[in-house]
Structure formats: structure tokens, C-alpha cells
Amino acid sequence: MPNFNITNHIIVKKQHTETSAIRTQLPRTDFQEHSVPLYLTSSFVFEDAEDMRASFAEEKARTIYSRYANPNTDELIEKVCLMEGAERGFAFASGMAAVFSTFAALLDSGDHIVASRSVFGSTHTLFTSIFPKWGISHSYFPFDAPEQIESLIRPETRILYAESPTNPGVDILDLELLGEIARKHNLLLVIDNCFATPYLQQPIRFGADVVIHSGTKLMDGQGRVLAGLAVGAESLIDRIYRFARITGPALSPFNAWVLSKSLETLPVRVDRHCENALQVARFLESHKKVHWVKYPFLPSHPQYDLAKKQMKAGGCVVAFEVKGGVEGGRNFFDRIGLLSLSANLGDSRSIVTHPASTTHSKLSAKERAQSGITDGMVRISVGLEHPEDIIADLDQALSG
Ligand SMILES: *Cc1c(COP(=O)(O)O)cnc(C)c1O
């Protein structure tokens, strides 16, 4: 529960996501500042003994300690909840802290997860190397075969988990179908919505119970801060909150402040990312050194109609395969000039990565193949530079 009457609620009830992103803000202090100040404080003071007792007993909504809640994180959470259509949320120090805490809070030893095989590399390692320590197991379904899901569900299955678009293959999963399967089998549907952001896709509309974000990517958009969020149904987030306030993965108020300001420009930034990405994808599709290109809003994408149905635009990530296998890939990366070779994505600066040798190198060759990652595959996170300059760099690198 936010500890404040975030002013947005008082002004307008129903509004567009652009407006929520800008106008959801903490009440002004006596200074009447226009931009929200930074509450860089670890703890908060009490009026008297009774105030302190009642606050700890949760008889009143009250900031106590920034591991539990802080005004800046409350503002960020409230904003993301409005944009996602969620009841409540919690903000974490990183996307992975959000992923881990969500599972850890909602699962017991012996429980089982059914997940799309195409999940973020660290999430995969969580499933395969960390959760088995506590007797939590998982089964994967291929992103393009959701009809296998029902055969994987066991009596102890609790969570159905997926990302869409997937990383790095930008494949699309049918969120409405996942919602139906989860409801039919009484499972919780948890969706990592990092690649789409709440501006492009709201999984709760399709039946998700909890939506997870890495705020590190498009939400921050300038590669400055790590952050994560879990938002969703009140009763589930309350369990996540109770787990997190004890175990301590809370987001720092500074990062929350940065991120809440970043969200003010999320819709305009993401619109431009998507326009640029579509131009880059079209260019790559016409290039003779490129084997194939995948971008959700290219008509050649295998799930183009689904992408159109559940997303407002295609996002910032384009995947493609350079001709010439590993050697062709190495030449391409060595020739790249303007674009950054970096592990991040969703930055104003365009970034190219080679998933097989970096983010997904911990997977076996077979696991990579099953996740749709080929040896010569390049993931490009298209930034906000002029598209002609991005394309010129790609063109010269491909011509090597
Ligand atoms: C980056 C990422 C994460 C992890 O987020 P961090 O902030 O790096 O911990 C989780 N899921 C997806 C899809 C991501 O891209």
C-alpha cells in the first residue's frame, strides 16, 4: 500500500498512460517544488511512543524504514501500477531481485514451475541451479508450442511463467492463451514484461497475476540505474512485500527517483525506439549479408498477427543472423564503430550483442538451439540516434 495520497489519484481517476507517467507524483512539500525531491533517508521518525507502536503494528500506513518503503519508491511503484493496471507493487534493486523474490515469496519447497524455454539467461540459471536447492522444480515448453503446456502441468505446479517478446529471439507468446490455461488449471500467471514495457503491452489485461520488470532497460532508457518491479494483485504482492521487507532487496531511493523521472518520457522514447527499430529491421531484411531478420512488427515475423494483437508497437530489439557463421559474426562485431558492444538493452545508445558467446553462453549448445539462439545471431537494441547513422554503421560492418 502506498503510504501517501499520491496526488494523481486525487486529480483524475482514469487517464492515458502518458499522463499517468507524468502526473503521478508525491504531494508537494511546504517548498512547493514542481519536480519531486529525493528522499535519501534510510529511516523515518515517529511522533511519540504510541505512533511508533501503531506504525510497527501496521495499524496505520506509515513509512518506517526504507527497506520496507520510501516515498520515492512508492511514487515509482504507484506510477507503474497505474500504467500496468495493477493493484499494488514492490520495487527491487534489480530485475533479477524482482524475479527471484516473486518466485521465492509465492512458492514452497516441492512446488513446480511451468515456463517458456526462452527466458532471460539469469532466470534460466535460477531455475536450473538455484531453485533445486529448495526442491523447486521446473518444466519448459517451447515458445512456439504452447499446446505442450497442459501436459507439463502437475498437481504441484503453481506458476506459469513467460516473457514476450522473448530475449534475444524476439519471439511472441500468446498472452491471452497463457491466461486461459492458467485460469483453467488454477495456476498463477507471471509475465516478465521487460521487453515491451507497460506502454506497449499490459499483460494483466490478458490474465497475468503478477507482472515483472527490469527497470534497467527501457524504463530507465539511458543505461544508468539497475532496478526491478513486481506489480499485480494485492494479495500476491502482499506476500512478495512481506518476503522482501525481511530479506532486503529494496530499490534505493536514488534509483527510484531517477527511474520515476525516466518514466515521464517513456512513451515518447519508446515510440521513437520502435520507429527506429522498424527502419533498421527493414534495412537488414534487404541486406544480402543477412540470413534472416526477426522483429515483431515486420510482416515476415512468424507471430506478426499476434504481436499486432497484444502490442502497441514492436519494441527496440531486432534479432538477425549474419551470413558466414561464427567467422561472419566475428567480422561484423570487430567492424562495428558507432554502435556499442555491450550487454545492456533499451538504452538511448544502440547496442549490439552476440548472445551465443555472452548472455546465453552458460546454456549448453542444445539449450541455446531450443531457445532459438543460433551461433551467428546478433541482437541489436536500437537506440535513439538518427536511424540513418545506425543503418550506416550496420551497413559498413556487414560489408567487411
Ligand atoms: C535484463 C533482464 C532481466 C534482469 O534484469 P536486471 O535489472 O539486469 O537484474 C530480467 N528479464 C529480462 C527479460 C531482462 O531483459
TrEMBL record:
EC number: 2.5.1.-
Catalyses which reaction(s): O-succinyl-L-homoserine + hydrogen sulfide = L-homocysteine + succinate
CDD domains cross-referenced by the UniProt entry: CGS_like (cd00614)
Entry cofactors: pyridoxal 5'-phosphate
Amino-acid biosynthesis is among the record's keywords: yes
Residues annotated as signal peptide: none
UniProt key word Acetylation: no
Keywords for the protein's UniProt record, in alphabetical order: Amino-acid biosynthesis, Aminotransferase, Methionine biosynthesis, Pyridoxal phosphate, Transferase
Pathway assignment: Amino-acid biosynthesis; L-methionine biosynthesis via de novo pathway; L-homocysteine from O-succinyl-L-homoserine: step 1/1
InterPro entries from the UniProt entry: Cys/Met-Metab_PyrdxlP-dep_enz (IPR000277), O-succ-hSer_sulfhydrylase (IPR006234), PyrdxlP-dep_Trfase (IPR015424), PyrdxlP-dep_Trfase_major (IPR015421), PyrdxlP-dep_Trfase_small (IPR015422)
N6-(pyridoxal phosphate)lysine PTM positions: 217
Gene Ontology MF terms in the entry: transaminase activity
Family according to the record: Belongs to the trans-sulfuration enzymes family. MetZ subfamily.
Protein's job: Catalyzes the formation of L-homocysteine from O-succinyl-L-homoserine (OSHS) and hydrogen sulfide.
Subunit details: Homotetramer.
PANTHER family: CYSTATHIONINE GAMMA-LYASE (PTHR11808:SF80), TRANS-SULFURATION ENZYME FAMILY MEMBER (PTHR11808)
Protein name according to UniProt: O-succinylhomoserine sulfhydrylase
Organism lineage string: Bacteria, Pseudomonadati, Bacteroidota, Flavobacteriia, Flavobacteriales
Originating gene: metZ
